[in-house]
Amino acid sequence: MEVDAPTTASSSSSPHFSRSPKRKLVEDVEMSATCSPSSSPLTEIDEEEKLSLAPLPAPILLLHLPAILIHPPNHQLHARSLCMSLLALRRCLKISGQSPDIECRALTSLAEVGMIVIDGGFAQQEQHVWAHGIETEVEDAISKGLMIAQKHPSLRIYRSQLTFLAAQLAAWQNNIKFARMLLRRLLTTYLPSDPPHIIYTAHLKFISHLITPIETQYKPTTMVSNASPVKLSQDVRQTMSAIQAMQKHACKYGHNEVVLLTRVLRLRQLVSSGLWDQVSEALAETEEALGLQFAGEQDTVDQSAGQSPRKGLRVTDLNTVHMNPPSPTKLSFSTKPSNTSDAQPSLTPVSEATPSFKMFHTYFERSMALHTLLIGVVFYTYVGRVSDATQRLSHLHALLDAGALRFDKKAVSTSTPSSSDASPTPNDSNTADAPQTEVTSQDTQEIDDAACGIVYIPLSESSPSLYVQTTHPRILYVLAFLVSCVAKKDPVGRRPKRKIFAIEGLSTWERELKKELHLPSFASMGDLEGIDTRLAKIKADLMCELVGVSIMRSEFNAAEQTLSVLIAHLRNADLFLSFSGRVTLHHAHLAHAQGQTDRAMQCYELAEALAGERGDDFVRISARAGRACLSIGLIRDKEYSRMGNKEEVKRELPKRKTREKSRERKVVDEDAMVVDGNTLVAEPEEWEDVQKLAEDVAEACRGMGGTMWSVGRVIEACLTEEILKSKQHLKSALSFASSAGDNHLRALILALIASHYFHTATDDALGMLGMCENLAAGLGATVKPPPGAKSKGKNGDAIGNAPLRTWVGDRSLEIHKRTGNGPAATKQEAANRALQTLIRNK
């Protein structure tokens, strides 16, 4: 009755007032509270609501609007959000009588938003009138903010951020020295009481301005994506010193995660600068810090120095490194589906004791481990140690299959999978039975940041964490396919891993492109364009690898089609100048393989010139090596033809039929073996020029990696007139090609070695010719249809390397006839005729 009485009284006192149900309920509650003093909770809630709904001061509201309004650059309202944010900050600064902290914070926010606008190039676009003159506005905001921060010691924290912005703006204005001077001076002003995350951020900013040469730092609106100048030695030294200074500071205060970050930075810089002789030691230190251990490294002995190859590895002296025995653990390859890709090959050990791969439980450690493993695979592939590269590639696949680049907001598993769990099926996760923990709001934010490539390093309980922007996960994921493709050099077999990874990498690239790209709200359009450019380069690299393996396997039609698609992709992405040397080199290799000597020579010369302009030493030396080898081959072929003509005159008339049959056996694929006689030069002066070119190439190949080192030794073997020296060069090149897993080059070296034993050791020559035949035939092996399936088209394998197989068949027949082995000669003649039939019907 007490509750209903006010309602009745209220309704009778206002018979003509029509109230809504919501308003009536509010009035009833207020009246009940008045009549019932004991209902204190209702009174407390009402007071809290009044306090929470109190209007914010205009400066505070305007200052916080950008954090709510700004959208990432891949959002359709990105430009509008920047415009509204600038408008809010400008109005905030127009309000008079503000406190210094509010004004300094508003100036800093205006400079930050303005830098995003500048990086997006909106100031140069006519339709964005609101962005015109933003550079001057940002400069004024930075200057005013620094003045306020210097006057008030309590605002000292803003000085670092404003200096970072000033340095970045100076770098975009091509004033690199001034930007570095600002950051170098800032590092000297820090006190031990300053927050450590700000000090480390200053170190990282300084390193980022040193890690890229001056020639490549441009203002984003005028940046040339094709620029790739050679790094200056002074920049490299300064970068190493800056990284060392940051590492010393981290060691002093016991920040082990920061020390790990500096080790990865140093390793990355060494590889980027081409200082390969220091990479081995830096890689060992980084792997030790991560706790990565690989089988067989402690047992591997350097024959030349008696030390571990990881401590004595020198790329300039690979003739001793390649003699190291392989790791004792033998790995077999098996292809299994995984969660991260539809068909991602994984590596499964054969040994009974299955080694377990270390998993990492923080996003920072996972990111550092992925970067270290990627660099390790590239390094050991470069120096030709396939066993060490395979172990790191296996660990890399295990991390990816376990979800190192998956950022699901689900319960977090605490299990540690072994190598047997490296390739879970899509319907059967490897963490299904593992204990799981609930995801908190902090974990959700951490997952969102990690999906954008942002990882954090906890420093201390009293200090904020250090947030680091690493390589975007999408780039890392697609890059793993490219590194796997490069590490698998062997093109022989029915399903060569190199081709599989290239095809799967391109398919994955297309799938990832259709997914939403996770970017932080403070990212700029320049950041988005940078990610797109890196992904476009990775796709071009994958297509280059596919072209290379197609040429090696004599799949010339596929190589031409892929080259056409590659050129179109490079044109669309505005990357053709960066890849012009490599594309021309691929055309040279394709023409060389098809016997088009004129076109091959022109493409080699053009590729050398283009690579020289771009500063790409590897492509330039590769083109020079191809030109030298082609010139030597043409001259030797001319000499062989002249010698053959002289012998024909001396032969007796009854042997003409034998000569006709011999010439029939030498008929090969016209597209692969036709040589233009006009290009055959055997003059002494021109041979001296070719010899000088070849000697320069052989010397330049030293220190250019395992493959080029072997190519240099092959060229030296062709130049020397001493048989013993030639055998030594070829055996050294063969040993290294075998340890590097390069069976394509190994087949050529076997053929050259066999030619030295035709008249001295026929059994050895036949054995090497047999291995060469198997490798050359394996270059045309195709996938067998499953049992019971109807095969489409022609049955059997392709020809493979037709010129090499023809040469091997002729030499084998010659040896059998000379040794008087009639049955073997008859069998070889039948095999040669069958091969010629396949070549004609090709």
Question: How does this structure look, described?
Answer:
The chain contains 34 helices and 6 strands. By secondary structure, it is mainly alpha-helical. Among the domains are: 49 residues, no CATH class; 99 residues, no CATH class; 106 residues, Serine Threonine Protein Phosphatase 5, Tetratricopeptide repeat (Alpha Horseshoe), CATH 1.25.40.10. The strands form 3 sheets. The protein has a two-stranded antiparallel ribbon. The chain has a two-stranded antiparallel sheet with strand order 3-4. Strands 5-6 form a two-stranded antiparallel sheet. Strand 5 and strand 6 form a beta hairpin. Helix 7 packs antiparallel against helix 8 and helix 8 packs parallel to helix 10. The relative contact order is 0.05.
CATH class of the domain at 724-782 and 796-842: Mainly Alpha
Instruction: Estimate percent helicity.
Output: 55-70%
Spatial order of strands in the largest sheet:
1-2
Beta-strand segment tally: 6
Shape: elongated
Output the CATH homologous superfamily of the domain at 724-782 and 796-842: Tetratricopeptide repeat domain
Biased composition (Low complexity): 413-430
Keywords: Cell cycle, Cell division, Chromosome partition, Mitosis, Nucleus
Family: Belongs to the SCC4/mau-2 family.
InterPro entries: MAU2
